[in-house]
Every structure is written in structure tokens, then in C-alpha cells.
Design brief:
Elements (H helix, E strand, L loop, with lengths): L3 H28 L4 H31 L6 H32 L5 H32 L4 H32 L1
Helix pairs in contact: 1-2, 1-4, 2-3, 2-5, 3-4
Bound molecules: fe (ii) ion (FE2) (2 copies).
One fe (ii) ion (FE2) binds next to helix 1, helix 2 and helix 4.
Length: 178
């Protein structure tokens, strides 16, 4: 498998979360309240899976290795755009997380911020994912030899393996502190 295989598989799961977020938006519109359990799980997914695990592999491994290649102006420009989009997604995720925290503390006005953040995320992700899937991932693989691609795939697996242990170590450390 090419290293973009796991990244594209991750895109498909992110799309399923986007569908769930859209359903949540409709529900909030009807009921004027959010489901706190859903919000908790959705924030965790976007923060840890979509950002830390998925954007993490893109930025820390794929983009890092691409930066060592003699890239075309077009590909260099797309990487800049993608990095900027990841940044904006992080800001939206942060505002969803803050909104969720306030909402769970009983601040019903935070519902507006939650709706804004989810609305932004559901319009952002499909466009970002399509750009990577259709214009970027496959063409940039041609900068790498088969050996480099195999090494990258291996590093992706290593990244995921480290991440799950770091995540749960973090959970225990936070619980120990409180
Ligand atoms: Fe991305
Ligand atoms: Fe992606």
C-alpha cells in the first residue's frame, strides 16, 4: 500500500463524523439544545483523530518529507494552503471545545458558538479532503521512490502506535492530578 492509503481511509471516517455533525446541527435547530454526550465524543474525535492523528501524520511526516524534495510551485502552494487550513480547523475545534465546556457548565448561550463551530467544520472538511484526495496525494507520491514510500508507511504506523499510548498515558496523568 502507498502511504496515502491510510490517510484516505482516515478521510472516509472523518466524512462519517461530518455526516453525524450535520445531523446534530439539524437536531439543535429543532430542539434548541445540544446532546452533551454526542458533543463530548465529537470533540474528542475531531481533536484527537482528525487533528492529532490525521493532520499529525500529514504535517509531521508527509509534508516534512515533501519539504526535502524539489517541489513544483503548484505543490508548494498547495502545502501552504493545506497547512493554513489545518490551522483554521484547529481554531474551530478549539472554539467548539470551549463552547462545549461552557454549555456543559450550564451556559446555554454557548449553544450559538457550538452551532457556529460545527457549521464551519461541516463546510470546511469536505472541501479540504477533496483537495487532498483529488489534487494532492497521488501526484506528490511521484516525488518518492518505492523505498521512501515504504519507509513513510512504516513511520505512519509507528506514529499511530505512539499516539494511542500517549493518549491514554495523558488521560491517566490528568485523572491523577485532579
Ligand atoms: Fe489535511
Ligand atoms: Fe487529510
Amino acid at each position: 500500500m502507498m502511504p496515502i492509503g491510510p490517510l484516505m481511509i482516515e478521510h472516509r471516517l472523518i466524512e462519517r463524523m461530518i455526516r453525524l455533525l450535520k445531523q446534530q446541527l439539524e437536531k439543535v435547530g429543532r430542539q434548541k439544545k445540544a446532546d452533551p454526550v454526542f458533543l463530548d465524543v465529537a470533540v474528542d474525535f475531531i481533536k484527537n483523530y482528525a487533528d492529532r492523528c490525521h493532520h499529525g501524520k500529514e504535517e509531521d511526516i508527509l509534508f516534512r518529507d515533501l519539504a526535502k524534495k524539489g517541489l513544483s510551485d503548484e505543490h508548494r502552494a498547495i502545502i501552504e494552503e493545506l497547512l493554513d487550513e489545518h490551522d483554521r480547523a484547529r481554531k474551530a475545534t478549539k472554539s467548539l471545545l470551549d463552547g462545549k465546556e461552557r454549555y456543559l457548565m450550564g451556559d446555554t448561550a454557548a449553544l450559538n458558538d457550538i452551532v457556529d463551530a460545527i457549521t464551519w467544520l461541516v463546510s470546511f472538511y469536505p472541501i479540504h479532503i477533496e483537495k487532498e484526495d483529488r489534487q494532492f496525494f497521488l501526484p506528490v507520491m511521484s516525488y518518492f521512490t518505492k523505498q521512501e514510500q515504504d519507509a513513510m508507511l512504516q513511520e505512519f504506523y509507528e506514529f499511530d502506535r505512539n499516539l494511542i499510548h500517549a493518549t491514554y498515558r495523558g488521560i491517566i496523568e490528568r485523572m491523577e492530578r485532579t
